[in-house]
TrEMBL record:
SUPFAM superfamilies (alphabetical): DHH phosphoesterases (SSF64182), NAD(P)-binding Rossmann-fold domains (SSF51735)
Entries under InterPro entries matching the protein: DDH_dom (IPR001667), DHH_sf (IPR038763), DHHA1_dom (IPR003156), NAD(P)-bd_dom_sf (IPR036291), Oligoribo/pAp-PDE_c-di-AMP_PDE (IPR051319), RCK_N (IPR003148)
Every DHHA1 domain range: 354-459
Domain RCK N-terminal span(s) in chain numbering: 5-96
PANTHER family per record: BIFUNCTIONAL OLIGORIBONUCLEASE AND PAP PHOSPHATASE NRNA (PTHR47618)
The protein's name in its UniProt record: DHH family phosphoesterase
Amino acid sequence: MGFRLVLGCGSVGQRVVERLSDGHRLLVITEDQRTVETLRDESVPARRGDPTDRSVIADLETPGVIFVAADRTDVNRAALEHARAEFPSSSIVVYMGGNATETDRRECRALADHVVDAEAAMVDQVLAETTTTSAEAAIELRAQLQTIDGRLGVMMHDNPDPDAIASAVALVDIAASVGVDADACYYGEISHQENRAMVNLLDLDLRNLAPDDSLSEYEAFALIDHSRPGVNDQLPDDLHADIVIDHHPPRGPVPGEFVDLREYVGATSTVLTEYLDRFDVPFDSATATALLYGIRVDTNDFTREVSAADFNAASLLWPHVDTTVLRQIEQPTVEGETLETIARAIKNRDQRDSVAVASVGRIGNRDALPQAADQLLAMEGVETTLVFGFMDEMAFLSARSRAGDVDLGETLRDAFDQIGSAGGHADMAGAQLEIGILASADGEREVDSIVSVVEEVIANRFFEAIRTQPGIPVGTYTRTSEWLFTMDEDEETS
């Protein structure tokens, strides 16, 4: 990120510089020679110059943040005009000074990213606007987007949920605001009835990629609501990620030119809402409605892993939300297949103390699994659930918990990372495992026999992993071979 430039250094500017100079690369330009000498004595880089003269800043590298901070309003307004013309991509904070008119305020708001217009609170507000994580991240994101000379592929995880869909659409809007064309892309399908309703009712522009589609038209790639190519998406493992924005805890280092991982927020949609606000992009009604729905789903209506940032994002979005459409999205018709999956989960559950595991067998819609896991969790005496089913040669798993001493994300990673991919949060997680041996099974009876053994493997690995959580008794378990998850045809015939 670029350095901080202070133009003019009046009484307010000097107080802010004292704080900004601690650990930040800084340059102060002011007409007052005594101020220059004082700052230099304190090891703050400063030079004498007229902040209203554009030639004074013409040869500087592009600052990340500019603070216009003379005491006089007319000086600050002129300095702001030149700074914005010289550095169009920089974030500018302007102090109005002590004699601002309504015209001054209107002109400064049109050019500056943030306007400080209250002496009593000016120092704290300037520091908040120039040093917060989201402000710095927005500057870095803008800089990264401006390096893209071509089309940006905004990649969601496979079979995306509302949070991923909304966040991807929002990043497309942000990219457009800086002149970058982008597509919101995903592999797999959007099968959950509420997710389909969201996409259709809001008329969201998404691109569904096939596994063999070429990605050559994209100059750059962004990963949204997940953080590693090839994990829960069908991208090449060695794909270079230019931008990564996620709220899930990563398992290992995350490569990327710009990486924003915020585990403390409840949804990636919260992060993208902040960026829309920071970029001053007008909130489109469809995007705002999708983002609010994404936050509500991932936080279970602000009851699960919610943060102050999620509430703040919701307050920003609410005036732009189409509440009629939002109600339609939240009350879709439940498909019969989903109800059947839930019924099988309840019937087939293996409950050991407060932990319930259920296989629902072959499925046609993997989005029914989290709904079944939620329904099991609503049963009396159940605090942790795992529901899984089989589609093609894959096993898909969905887990939920309301037990305070269970971390499902870590539990599923410990149980299944070696034989598939897994991840998520403490109270909500998922995994997918490739069961290649099913493809080579001879006849329905043999398939059923293999599925029965695989079900035992999955259940036992989960019970074994979760029993290591403190204070969670889950009865007894047996260890079953893992060969089902690794055997190919050559191994089977040998």
